[in-house]
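User: Predict the structure for this protein chain, please.
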Amino acid sequence: MDSGIAEAYLWYVSVPLAAGFLLDSLFGDPLSKAHPVVMIGRLITFCEHKLYKKGRRELARGAVLAVIVSLSSAAVGFLAVRLASAVAGRAGGCIASSLICWSMIAAKGLKTESTKVQNALEMNDMNEARRAVSMIVGRDTERLDAAGVTRAAVETVAENTSDGVTAPLFWMAVLSVPGLCFYKAVNTMDSMIGYKNERYMLFGRFAARLDDVLNFIPARVSAFLMTAAAALLPYTDADSALRIYIRDRKKSASPNAGCTEAVTAGALGIRLLGPAWYFGKLYDKKYIGDDLREAGPADIAHANGLMYLTSVLMLAVCEIPAAVIIMNL
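Assistant: Here is the predicted structure, written as structure tokens:
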């Protein structure tokens, strides 16, 4: 590899990857009105207001929104790093890349919010448990009992291990900041307009399918690494994780979410998914995992432990090119 390209990779990809993950692990999400994901969300809302029209060409209009939002996000990320590099050299570009990477990773935020659910369950405060879990899931939570709240929280941690942590690390490693911003824009669109309801069935379809494409590889790599993580943790079963992954990963409506959900269900020895209410309508989802025992609050902590170790393993995999570069300098 050309030495200039190698050095650029270290400055703009490798170091920001490690720094972004470390900053998130230490400090969590840098909440502010200028947060990149908040800005992406506002752009999606603005474009939806301008483009959505019931009737003909809903799919095409939704595709236009997806192209505008994803490419704009990638361009802004690219220009931010270029501007920082122009002002302060490679160190400036490295810092800008690290800060953007930090803002796009959600490991600590996921752990913090799901732990609020666990704490409420342990205090037998079901009203607070339902309120807390409603902050991190899209389903209706009013009907959930303690086991249902627990499963919802565990499912969210399992799915977002890939969506919120390992997939951003993957795309940062592959395509640097523009790729990371592109991915995060698509993932945010999926969470905002990717629903299969009357309004978004056609309008949000392109964004939802693009999200499926971008998550296809990261979800499967994450499932493999999560199975490895299950072999290293004292409270998880790697053999069961692999067995349930092979058997149940396709039972989810999502072609990708079922990968990490199946591994988590097998690793913890519980059953996930099943019938759930969304917007007042009951959806008869298939179960994932074996009904060996009822899910309990401790499973939320165990799912978070599995998420963090899986994320560390993904970071290690993403840093392999940097290790090769360093050894050949």
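Residues 3-327 form one domain.
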